[in-house]
Write a structure and sequence with these properties.
Length: about 800
């Protein structure tokens, strides 16, 4: 470091992220302060939009590692925000910028950021990653690990000096006496004395979640082995409910501190922890920063070692399965095979070992296990060995009801290649469908794998609109066909099984052109977009590019060997728009993509009311609500839902009746309508709802209102019935086909009649309500995943035999 560098007086440090992102580069913050001891340091960082993420300044407060903060907008797509930030940086008269971010877009992002910060009149910029070792985590020689994010950051700042990351001084959070006193007071209030077992059982990312049933089993075993050991659960307020349920299992001293502590007070609390057991999460990094041994449960969404806790005294569970380093936040296709293959037994054994090292031994004298491996790999052929709770009931080793249990049946000779959807399009129901098909077919003995277009050009600008949409077209139409053909050749070369390709969503039917000599099936969920492009829905005009795409989809369907429709209504559309294709089309009843079951009413109401409070509402203890589940497309008729609710409130005269929307946020026009009609207190928007939350919403609702104008199937109808929720929906196909005799039907075009029907359902006596719910259970039971897979197995055999017969015709001639 030159003498001139030490003279910088105003330095800005750029780092975005929250708790874990801050702590992994804590040595880098210390290095910057050491390099510029007298400088005024401004922290340029974002303020997380989710309550599950702690702002960076709350982690570094009182450390003297920075002096003030400057807000970095979460997205700079808004040119006004961009100019606002540029002006703020120029007005700050900064001598130097230290770049601590980890650009996801590689060297192009680094170059873009460098040019932007230079345009802000900052003369010296340090740490922008341009080299291979700073742009990505590289393998650590002689190990199966990759370079940590800590080492990557320090590599980029090597011009400022060197750091020994094993020296605790570089990890010092400089906790204040007040923070330590607050931590001791919290523990004392709950009767907790060190050493104690600490745990964090929540995570803001679905793909990282080990799931509650595993945590329950682990805590039950630990409670039996260590009956007198105190247990402290840490996390954010959104994790409090799960933590409270799990804490009921523990018989010894216990405390649920979720949402009660700042990150720094949590660090002070963890000084007394014997062991921390947790997900890959912010609390894990807090514990590791304080030198607490961790038993850490990782998904394989990142490289092994990249985000591991600092230090060597941890047991880290990581399964390096074929799809490792996927980067997914939500895993549908593989059903979280990596993290859910980690068993309670091995985590418990690691916990016993780590506690033994701290002098805490199980009461019943269980021997301390052999040293647990730091992390492990799972071969591809062992991926099926998942916990029983996450593998659907075995369908038999063959594919269909007729042949189940008979070795050598036709189905067992099949290899099915499932074509899934492009991830940036975020068609989550379609992703779940392909994931369910893959899981269930393999369980039935039919070899099945998913292949889908992956972002290549799309990585430059992720998204389903604007430039991202056009880059996605390159990935779908240029890159993926070559992958598809190569994969088919590989499977056909094996020779022992007959290949069948199943396009899981008709919106990918244009790939049929590559399947002319390969047996194939296309599932058609609905033709609403095609009909819009044909002008059948004037209220939903389609742009020229959309019309071209829908013509391609229609052309692919017309050439398909077999079309499977999700409902009779969709089959009628197929027959009407493609008379020739109608001859090779049929209906298969869909199976639920997720397990839906009723939640006990008290627990469901408590969970729902907590969600409503989180959304800024204050429901009274006796509040009731109607539920709508779905997105914002025009045919979901959200405007009709609000109009019905508005009139219903006038007719029903109850301030305790609410309308809950679960799905995408309401559009600006609907929000304005709600405000103008003074319904803001009664209309609740819930976005990003988890599966467990959705089950609770269905279970505690007075009814599901689902007055769609059109649908391909209508999943919420069956989901609600499976959870014991009465359903009021449109009396048109396919809604009346799916709801059967269990749903109550209305005409969305007849407002007053619809309101009368809703009042009747809300006022129904308990006996009739129980009868409606029971009929709903019986109707939902028809939509079995097992029955769906059986039907598809028979269809695969049919198209395979038909194609084999066609291939034989020239020989016979």
């Amino acid at each position: 470091m030159t003498r001139e560098t030490r003279q910088f007086k105003r330095v800005v440090v750029y780092r975005i992220g929250s708790l874990g992102d801050t702590l992994v580069v804590l040595p880098a913050f210390h290095l910057v302060r050491q390099a510029f001891p007298d400088a005024h340091i401004t922290l340029l960082t974002n303020f997380p939009v989710t309550a599950k993420a702690a702002p960076m300044e709350t982690v570094l407060r009182n450390t003297n590692l920075y002096n003030d903060t400057l807000k970095y907008p979460v997205s700079l797509r808004d040119s006004r925000e961009l100019f606002r930030l540029r002006n703020a940086l120029q007005e700050g008269n900064y001598d130097c910028l230290v770049y601590l971010a980890s650009p996801k877009g590689g060297v192009f992002t680094s170059l873009r950021d460098y040019v932007f910060f230079k345009s802000c009149s900052i003369p010296t910029i340090i740490g922008v990653p341009f080299s291979r070792s700073t742009l990505r985590s590289l393998p650590v020689p002689g190990t199966d690990l990759f370079q940590s994010r800590t080492n990557r950051a320090l590599e980029a700042l090597k011009s400022l000096g060197t750091v020994d990351i094993n020296d605790p001084k570089w990890w010092d959070l400089k906790l204040t006496p007040d923070e330590i006193a607050e931590a001791d007071s919290l523990l004392g209030r709950h009767g907790i004395t060190p050493p104690f077992l600490a745990a964090s059982v929540g995570t803001k990312i679905q793909a990282k979640d080990w799931e509650e049933h595993n945590w329950r089993n682990l805590i039950e075993r630990a409670a039996a082995a260590f009956p007198e050991l105190p247990l402290v659960l840490l996390g954010v307020d959104e994790e409090r409910e799960r933590s409270e349920r799990l804490l009921k299992i523990w018989n010894g001293p216990k405390a649920n501190l979720c949402g009660e502590t700042s990150p720094r007070v949590a660090a002070a609390i963890l000084r007394g922890a014997g062991v921390m057991v947790c997900h890959d999460s912010g609390p894990m990094h807090v514990a590791a920063t304080m030198g607490v041994p961790c038993v850490a449960i990782f998904s394989a969404r990142a490289k092994p070692g990249e985000w591991f806790p600092r230090g060597e005294n941890h047991a880290v569970f990581y399964r390096k399965i074929p799809c490792w380093d996927c980067g997914l936040e939500e895993c549908f296709e593989k059903r979280k095979a990596c993290i859910l293959s980690i068993t309670v037994d091995e985590v418990f054994d690691a916990l016993v070992e780590k506690l033994a090292h701290r002098g805490i031994r199980p009461r019943y004298g269980r021997p301390v296990p052999a040293r647990v491996e730091r992390f492990g790999c799972v071969p591809a052929d062992e991926l099926g060995r998942l916990p029983v709770a996450h593998v659907a009931q075995t369908l038999g080793r063959l594919g269909t009801t007729k042949d189940r249990g008979r070795a050598g049946s036709a189905e067992s000779k099949l290899s099915v290649l499932l074509v899934g959807n492009y991830p940036p399009d975020r068609q989550e129901s379609m992703q779940r469908f392909s994931a369910v098909m893959e899981r269930e077919l393999n369980a039935a003995g039919i070899e099945a794998t998913v292949i889908r277009p992956e972002p290549f050009f799309g990585r430059l600008k992720p998204g389903a609109s604007g430039l991202g949409k056009w880059l996605g077209y390159l990935d779908k139409f240029v890159v993926f066909p070559r992958r598809l053909k190569r994969r088919m050749r590989e499977l056909q070369a094996i020779g022992s099984r007959t290949l069948v390709v199943h396009i899981c969503d008709h919106s990918n039917s244009f790939y049929v052109r590559y399947l002319r000599r390969v047996p194939h099936v296309v599932t058609c969920h609905d033709l609403l977009a095609v009909r819009s492009a044909l002008g059948e829905f004037p209220q939903n005009p389609t742009r020229w590019s959309g019309r071209v795409l829908q013509r391609m989809i229609l052309g692919g369907l017309e050439k398909a060997q077999r079309i499977v429709c999700a409902s009779n209504a969709t089959l009628r559309d197929v027959c009407r728009l493609m008379p020739i294709a109608g001859d090779c089309s049929s209906v298969v009843k869909m199976g639920l993509n997720n397990p839906f079951a009723p939640v006990p009413i008290a627990a469901a109401r408590a969970r729902v009311f907590e969600l409503m409070r989180g959304a800024g509402h204050s429901p009274a203890p006796g509040a009731r609500y109607m539920l709508h589940v779905g997105g914002a497309p025009w045919y979901k008729n959200r405007a009709g839902v609000i109009e019905m609710f508005c009139e219903l409130r006038r007719a029903y005269d109850s301030d305790n009746l609410h309308l809950v929307f679960a799905g995408e946020p309401l559009g600006a026009d609907l929000k304005s309508y709600v405000r103008d009609d003074e319904m803001a207190r009664s209309v609740v928007e819930l976005t990003g709802v988890s599966h467990d939350d959705l089950c609770a919403l269905y279970s505690a609702a007075e009814l599901l209102i689902f007055p769609s104008l059109h649908e391909g199937f209508g999943w919420p109808i069956v989901e609600a019935q499976a959870c014991g929720c009465p359903v009021v929906t449109t009396g048109w196909p396919p809604m009346n086909e799916v709801g059967g005799t269990a749903a109550v039907y209305l005409d969305p075009a007849n407002l007053w009649s619809a309101v009368d029907i809703l009042v009747n359902v809300l006022d129904v006596d308990e006996e009739r309500r129980r009868a409606i719910i029971q009929r709903g259970y019986e109707n939902a039971a028809q939509y079995s995943t097992q029955a769906m897979t059986d039907s598809y197995g028979e269809i695969y055999v049919s198209v395979a035999k038909r194609q084999a017969e066609i291939a034989e015709l020239p020989r016979k001639a």
